[in-house]
Amino acid sequence: MSTFKTLVVVVLSATVVVSAVYWAQRNKPIPVTLTTVESGEIERTVTNTRAGTLNACRRARLSPSLGGQISSLPVKEGEKVKKGQVLFEIWNNDLLAQTQLAQSEFTASKALQQQACIQFELAEREATRMTKLLARGLVSDEIADKAVGQSQASKAACDAAIATVSISQAKILVARAALERSRLIAPFDGTIAEVNGELGEYITPSPVGIPTPPAVDIIDNSCLYVSAPIDEVDAPEIRAGMIARISLDAFGKQFFDGRVRRVAPYVLDKEKQARTVDIEVDFITDKDNSNMLPGYTADVEVIIDSHSNSLRIPTEALLEGNKVYLFDPDFDTITEVEVTIGLSNWKHSEVLTGLEQGQQIVTSIDRDGLMDGAVVKTEKVLK
Questions:
Q1: CB pairs under 8 A, 24+ apart, for 286-289?
Q2: What HEC string does 73-87 produce?
Q3: What is the pLDDT of residues 110-131, one digit of tens each?
Q4: Which of 162, 194, 213 is the last residue of a domain?
Q5: Both 245 and 364 in a single domain?
Q6: Distance separating alpha carbons of residues 81 and 22, to the nearest angstrom
Q7: Same domain for 272 and 284?
Q8: Would you say residue 6 lies in a domain?
Q9: Confidence of residue 189 (pLDDT cuts 50, 70, 90)
Q10: Helix 141-180 vs helix 93-135: angle between axes, to the nearest 10 degrees?
Q11: For the whole prediction, is pTM greater than 0.85?
């Protein structure tokens, strides 16, 4: 009997201790981070699903259509060039000679044409004169017919000479076209991004269907845009002309104003279960972008809708079911409150009903022990 009483006392003591610890822990204030409900601008945005890319508006990857030995390479990587400047040239002395020959043939044919046509003018005047004399009976029919025949023959010779001149002009164009195929000319003002080849090396044209590095890669850094993939679910809301924000990994937390210039008219399915639509966004900021390099990783945030001077809270403070923990400064407790949410993005959510400006809510909702009615202590207040 004594043993039984001792066992009961021990159990009761343990129960009391556990209960005391439980209530002590339950009533121990939980440190939380608070934020004040405020008014401000709220936006609903759409962002890219995968990293976008900074591109130059104009970029030309140039390669010659002829094979041969590189005879001239007057540019280097990083060098700025002007439109029409020669960037690359294959040995073409034979083509130069053909061009000069065609030019000489044209000059000769032009002189022969002038000679033939002058003779035609003289013969035509002579035929007219003989025809008049024949009408007056001063010359015979034979002499007049001979003059007319010579005039007609001279006209045919003049026409043939004119045709020969046209042929000579066409030969010049053919020779020049062949010469141009041996050269790479800058299609616009820009910067040389890449040069593949050295002076004296031999180069061959790319086989059909087999991509090879360009001989010269030229880009125009004065105009840049971002190409980024958008989830197919969000794509129907995006239209050309919408305002967007651009961020570049290389520039940290700096943002640049942009405008959507194009939404692709088709869906890409490069990855399973990840169909996307590419959009292009232009820079519309006055900030200097001369130090931006095509190929940088970029992200875009397209603004679908926005409200100014709206009541807003951090999105991270929302619980499941659109609820928040409202802080009561009089009793240092929190109350679970349901709110009605309007526009929302990853940073802020618009509150339509359920909260008032100046109230404080909990943002550190992942703390252990948080529940409706819990006692808390303020660890930090976010601004």
A1: 287/256, 289/224, 289/256
A2: CCCCCCCEECCCCEE
A3: 999 999 999 989 988 988 888 8
A4: 213
A5: no
A6: 78
A7: yes
A8: no
A9: very high
A10: 160
A11: no
